[in-house]
Amino acid sequence: MLDVRDLNVRYGPIHAVRGVSLSVQAGEIVTIIGANGAGKSTILKTLVGLLRPSGGGLYLDGENLTGLTPAAIVGRGLALVPEGRRVFPRLNVLDNLLLGGYGKPKRQMEENLTQVFDVFPRLRERRRQLAGTLSGGEQQMLAMGRGLMSHPRLLLLDEPSMGLAPLLVQQIFETILRINEGGTTILLVEQNAHMALAVADRGYVLETGALVLAGEAEALATNPQIRAAYLGE
Fold first, then answer.
1. pLDDT band at residue 224 using 50, 70 and 90 as cut-offs
2. CATH number of the domain that 160 lies in?
3. One domain, residues 199 and 188
4. Is the same domain home to 43 and 135?
5. Percent of the chain, pLDDT > 70?
6. What is residue 130's DSSP assignment?
7. Which of 11, 103, 139, 157 lies 20 to 30 angstroms, CA to CA, from 120?
């Protein structure tokens, strides 16, 4: 499905992502873990066209995504749920969701909205409420629901547990599993390595812009190096 080959990304003189290669197969949950500033979010932003790579290639089912606009990439089936939620605070929940499906036919928008409300019943209850008045957990639900409104084949989640209480973190990861079970492939960037590896099929470990480990999530979770560096053990 997704194939990232020797990806390099620079911010001026800063080489933020260095020779990263990874893959995501249809139906998987794949996670990228690493410390803050390791380059995880940069990879996701590059995948959806918000940043341009300085080298390497990005392929979806063999099609090169490099150079396509963000709108064109969304049209190919990728959607990003950004770090920090980034909801539109002065719009209500429903309008935030409809923006996520912008450009879709009316019937498909209605179908997608029904599916989002099935996944997040709280959003149906809050659909007329201003997004800025929602709790942090509700805003994260809204951001994820907005991403699902484009009916993506591959959903990119950037730090979905950031700033949430432990109980809400558990709920968010249970929802990630539900979304995946519904047929959506997921690439998850997350500092909470314990939870990320618990839901993922495979994982990659990123340090200072380069991959240092990769493998089955269960094996990474029991790796002494990972346990010491990221699991606090």
1. confident
2. 3.40.50.300
3. yes
4. no
5. 98
6. B
7. 103
Q: Are residues 129 and 42 in the same domain?
A: no
pLDDT one-digit tens code per residue, 141-172: 999 999 999 899 999 999 998 878 888 888 88
The verdict on 156 and 231 lying in the same domain is: yes
48 with 38, same domain: the answer is yes
Instruction: Give the position of tokens 């959607």.
Output: 79
Amino acid at 151: H
Q: Model confidence over 182-220: pLDDT tens digits?
A: 999 999 998 888 899 999 999 999 999 999 999 999 999
- Please identify, among 151, 166, 189, the residue that sits at the C-terminal boundary of a domain: 151
Q: Do 116 and 229 sit in the same domain of this protein?
A: no
CA 154 to chain centre: 9
The DSSP code sequence of 62-103 is TEE-TT--HHHHHHHTEEEE-TT----TTSBHHHHHHHHTTT
Q: Do 207 and 38 form a contact (C-beta atoms < 8 A)? A: yes
> In this structure, are 147 and 157 located in the same domain?
no
| Structural domains of the chain, count | 2
- Structural domain containing residue 111: 84-151
State how far the Cα of 129 lies from the Cα of 131, in Å rounded to an integer.
Answer: 6
